[in-house]
Amino acid sequence: MAGSGIPTVDLSPFFSSNGDQGDKEKKLAMDAIYQSCSEHGFFRIVNHGVPLDLMNRALQLSKTFFEYPDDEKLKCSPVSAAPLPAGYTRHPQNSPDRNEYLLLFPPNSRFNIYPQNPPEFREVLEEIFSHLTRTGMLVESILNECLGLPPNFLREYNQDRSWDFMAALRYFPATKVENNGISEHEDGNLITFVFQDEVGGLEVLKNGEWIPVTPVEDTIVVNVGDVIQVLSNKKFKSATHRVVRSEERSRFSYAYFYNLQGDKWVEPLSQFTKEIGEPPKYRGFQHKEYQQLRMRNKTHPPSRPEDVINISHYEIST
Ligand SMILES: O=C(O)CCC(=O)C(=O)O
Ligand SMILES: [Fe+2]
C-alpha cells in the first residue's frame, strides 16, 4: 500500500468459500505473507474479523483508564509476576521504556485482575480478546500453509490457548531529551497483533532502515515472533520493531500475543533442518524458560542494552 511501507493483506477470502476466484485471492494473500515473513516478518491485515467499533471502543476505554489517578490504576496491581504480571504495571524508573500497561490472559483466566472502572471495560476487553484469538488461529493456519507444514501442524503443536495474553498500552509523551517508548526488540511468541490510535510511533526494521508503521484505520499490524523464527530455522523472520514517542501527546495501543504453552519445547523442525540438509540455527528450549528470561529484562532492566536477553541466546554459532 502506497506510503505505508509494509504490505496490506486482505483476509476476506479466508472467511468465505468463493470457488476458483476465492482460491486465487487466497493465493495472492499467501504470496504476500510469504514474502514479508521471509524478509522482515511484518504485514498489516484488513477484513480480519475484528469489528472496527470494538477496536475503537477498546482504545477509548483504555485511554479513560490510563488517565485515572494512580491510586485507581494501582487497585489492579499484579499479585504475582508468574507466569506474567497480569494487571496494571508501569515500568521501573531505570527502564528505557516509558509506558504503562494493563496485561490480561484470556477471559476468566484465574490470573486476570480486571479494572472495576470504567465499568464496561472488562466486557470490551474480553470481547476483543476472543476476536483476536480467532484471528490468531486463522493467521496461524495461513502461516502453516505458507511454511508447507502438514495440515494443522501448528494448531496441534499449539493447542492450549490459556497462555495467550494482551496488553493495553499507554506511551507517555516524549520529552526534549528522550523519546523511547519500547526499545528495539522482537516478540518472543508466535504471532503478535497490534492496533493503535492515530498518534503513530511504531516502527519496523526493514533492510536496515526504520520504517514507520503509520496508523491506518481498521487494519491490524501483524508481526511474526521468535517461536516461528526458531521452528522454521529462520526461514520466517521475527520482526524487529520499536516504539518512538511523540512529543505532544500520549499514544494508546493494544498488543495481542498469540502464544505457546510454557512447557512446550521449541526447536527448529526437521522439515527445515534434517530433511533439507540444513544445520539447526538454534538449540532447543522450553518456552517458559525463555519467557521468564524476557520478563526479567523488563522488571530488572540490565544496565547494558547488549545484556538484554533475546532469541540469539539460543543461537548455535557456526
Ligand atoms: O504498542 C505497540 O505499538 C507495540 C508494542 C510492542 O511491540 C510490544 O508490546 O511488544
Ligand atoms: Fe513487540
UniProtKB/TrEMBL annotation:
Organism classification: Eukaryota, Viridiplantae, Streptophyta, Embryophyta, Tracheophyta
The UniProt record lists the keyword Hydrolase: no
Keywords: Iron, Metal-binding, Oxidoreductase
PROSITE patterns, sorted: FE2OG_OXY (PS51471)
Keyword Oxidoreductase: yes
Coiled coil: none
A Pfam family annotated for this UniProt entry: 2OG-FeII_Oxy
A molecular function (GO) term: metal ion binding
Domain of life: Eukaryota
Protein name in UniProt: Fe2OG dioxygenase domain-containing protein
Region feature Disordered, mapped onto this chain: 1-22
Residue ranges annotated for the Fe2OG dioxygenase domain, each copy included: 162-260
Family named by the database record: Belongs to the iron/ascorbate-dependent oxidoreductase family.
